[in-house]
Amino acid sequence: MSEPLDLPARCDALPEHTEYADTGCDLAPSCLNCPLPRCKYDSPGGAAAMLRTSRDAAIADAVRRRNLPIDDVAAMFGLSRRSVFRALRRIPPPPSPRP
Predict the structure, then answer these.
(1) Is residue 60 in a domain?
(2) Is residue 7 part of a domain?
(3) Is residue 10 part of a domain?
(4) Are 31 and 20 in contact (CB under 8 A)?
(5) How many domains does the chain have?
(6) Per-residue pLDDT of the chain (99 residues; tens, 9 = 90+)
(7) Is residue 49 part of a domain?
């Protein structure tokens, strides 16, 4: 029978024998039922930044792939033209295929 390995303790491990209350936040009543892929408190910019990223990707898709006019996209998302252009700047265009 082999001996147990002496692994170093994880720096992000929770202390043993400690009660933690899963109180959630304003988005979900429990952390285990949260709709976000990552905790809003662990992400720079919080939940707004995570939601903005998916919105920006949808804006880029509407403009670049579906060729919708900027004014129509702005009306669809309830944004100004300037906000649509900012969103397009944050999402880089896909690489063009090489011949």
Answers:
(1) yes
(2) no
(3) no
(4) no
(5) 1
(6) 556 566 666 666 666 777 778 888 888 888 888 887 778 777 777 777 777 888 999 999 999 999 999 999 999 999 999 999 999 999 888 777 777
(7) yes
Which two tokens mark 46?
């919080």
The C-alpha atoms of residue 31 and residue 29 are separated, in whole angstroms, by 7
Helix, strand, coil share of the chain (percent; to 5): 40, 0, 60
Cβ-based neighbour number of residue 68 at 10 Å: 16
Residue 74: give the domain boundaries.
45-90
Task: Give the pair of three-digit tokens for residue 12.
Answer: 């992000």
pTM attached to this predicted model: 0.56
Specify the 3-state DSSP secondary structure of 77.
Answer: helix
For residue 67 the two structure tokens come to 């060729």
